[in-house]
Amino acid sequence: MLFWHTQPEHYNQHSAGSYLRDVLALPIFKQEEPQLSPENDTKLPPFQYVLCTATSPAIKLHEETLTYLNQGQSYEIRLLENRKLGEFQDLNTKYVKSILRVVFHDRRLQYTEHQQLEGWRWSRPGDRILDIDIPLSVGILDPRASPTQLNTVEFLWDPSKRASAFIQVHCISTEFTPRKHGGEKGVPFRIQIDTFKQNENGEYTEHLHSASCQIKVFKPKGADRKQKTDREKMEKKTAQEKEKYQPSYDTTILTECSPWPDLPYQVNNAPSPSYNSSPNSFSIGDGNSSPTQQVELLPPSNDHLLPSASIQDVQQWLHRNRFSPFCRLFSSFSGADLLKMSKEDFVQICGPADGIRLFNAIKGRNVRPKMTIYVCQEPEQNRSHLHQKRENGDGNLCVYHAVFLEELTTLELIEKIANLYSISPQQINRIYRQGPTGIHVLVSNEMVQNFQDESCFVISTLKAESNDGYHIILK
User: Fold this and answer.
1) What stretch of H or E contains 19?
2) For the segment 79-98, what is each residue's pLDDT rounded down to a tens digit?
3) Which of 113, 235, 254, 455 is most buried per CB count within 10 Å?
4) How many whole angstroms separate alpha carbon 205 and alpha carbon 165?
5) Which of 450, 376, 380, 463 is nearest to 420 (CA)?
């Protein structure tokens, strides 16, 4: 659970470099400069983090600031050092490690964070909640993002030098509202940064400082429109009413808070891979992982809900099948209870889209592919080319495999055949179909769309002359 403190009374006014002086020259710092005293000066935190975008003008006094962000847009977070010469002598390492997270602001959602993020994962496969824009970032080293912690990134930085991390938030606040009929008020998030130093074993585990701020994320350009709306609303208020509200500051100061608990949201214990040159991607190994490693997180195809399922079994089934947002609604339902419900019942409770999806999942209705074809490797072919795995020792036996097609394109056919024989799709250069008199006809999207359903093909291969790839021939 996340705990945070109220807006701090004083901000740092001291810096050894011009970079920090430029940031602290903002009005938010100047207005409180006369209140600083030597006693307060000694209590400054070791670091300060500044999100370089304006706060909302429609926030009342003594309330925490709120900042609007656009989905997928890069925003700078400046990492500043407050230490004066001679302070924090125990920081005997050059670098510190900061872990940056996007988490829920509402405690109600914090309690169900794992279910909420897991539901987002299923609805946005392959996407991340938080990314670092590497080309724009300055002074950060070894940025990492785990594929099992979609809302977390981490990196090293040198407090004595300029450091800025540009972040991108890809989820929007309305994605976590219970009902999605349009016009909902989005839930607020928090950006939290926890900074650590090395221990005697060289591990970054000794906590130094934590700070966070409140944000809301809108679809592209939505944050600009919301900021303009708030500004226009404030302009219509009287001078007396405006005194009850904070001004809009040019930057957002992350306020001190408690460190994040050492129980991050994750699916498994996969290691954190390093970013590569692309800001929206990261390395996941040597690229030779087996297909089974990539689908372990998917619910099993025969995961049907049984009448004998207990209340706890139903909750686990809902979670596995991407119905986490409705776990609370069905918290007292057994398997028999859900199986007795009609489609109209589910639509009324969950809404049209989710209600129909939940009804079909419970009734075990499988979606039929658009086309099914059967392929077999030619028995006399050299099997090492395609790494085909046969359990039968009869070398002349031709075993057919089903290939299910949804998009009916050549690219999909290449990917399915490559996946079937555990090779990379890049190794397949072309696919041909053997025509009259043995001619080889290039397979196009139109030809795939005109395949007869449940057609049978024997696959043979030709070594490509230009590279190490192969041509596939369907006979």
Assistant:
1) helix 18-24
2) 998 765 445 555 566 889 99
3) 254
4) 21
5) 376
